[in-house]
Amino acid sequence: MAIRQGLLALLSQGPRYGYQLRAEFEASTGATWPLNIGQVYTTLSRMERDGLVSPGEQDDQGRVVYSITEAGRAEMERWFSTPVAQSDRPRDELVIKLAMAVAAGADVRPVIRAQRTATMSALQHLTRAKHANVQGAAQRLVLDSMIFQAEAEQRWLDHCEAVLTASPQTQERQR
After folding, report:
1. pTM beyond 0.85
2. Running DSSP on this structure, what letter comes out for residue 7?
3. Res 153: pLDDT
4. Which of 60-69, 80-89, 148-157 has the lowest mean pLDDT?
5. Is the pLDDT of residue 104 over 90?
6. Which of 165, 140, 93, 150 has the alpha carbon at shortest distance from 119?
7. Residue 44: which of 70, 15, 79 has the closest Cα?
8. I want to staple 76 with a disulfide (CB 3.0 to 4.6 A). Which of 8, 26, 141, 146 is the partner?
9. Band of residue 175 on the pLDDT scale cut at 50, 70, 90
10. Which residues touch 92 (CB under 8 Å, ≥6 apart)?
11. Average pLDDT, the chain
């Protein structure tokens, strides 16, 4: 997700200044994507340049409040209506690591075991976080997504282990 579209979504609820946007962005994503305040203001400047937001007057504390423009609303609606393609997602480092371990002829079992342990620990942490302090539907959806991804990773690791155990090439390398 681009920070730009996330900030537009927040601004669609009403005018805000940078620190509000940062706090609401992090709260909405369950603090899973922390933003640097510099990123927020740089993004706001670019969106202003592109006509997606307009700055208001400074308040008594020197903060500039930004509002979404019609062009910004159109950009946000375009983002909401466009599916995220698999090719637009970042590469999965774990998949690459396992593929390279297999290609290098390494014993992949310790790699899988270490990842399984780390993923299970993350899954437990996420589950506790979900039950402890979920504040609103946005945070719940983010945590649910992360839990489902961790569960899917565990299943995939099981699959990798089964495939590699059954593979004649792997059995030959392990001898």
Report:
1. no
2. H
3. 94
4. 80-89
5. no
6. 150
7. 15
8. 8
9. very low
10. none
11. 88
Place of tokens 């537009």: 8
Could you tell me where the DSSP H helices lie in the chain? Answer: 3-11, 18-28, 37-49, 70-81, 93-103, 109-133, 137-166, 168-174
Phi/psi of residue 124, each to 5°? Answer: -65, -45
Cα 91 from Cα 89, distance rounded (Å) = 6
Residue 47 neighbours by CB under 8 Å, 6+ apart = 4, 7, 8, 53, 66, 72
Exposed (0-12), middle (13-18) or buried (19+): which is 170, by Cβ within 10 Å? middle
Question: Alpha-carbon distance 68 to 55, whole Å?
Answer: 9
First to last CA, the chain: 45
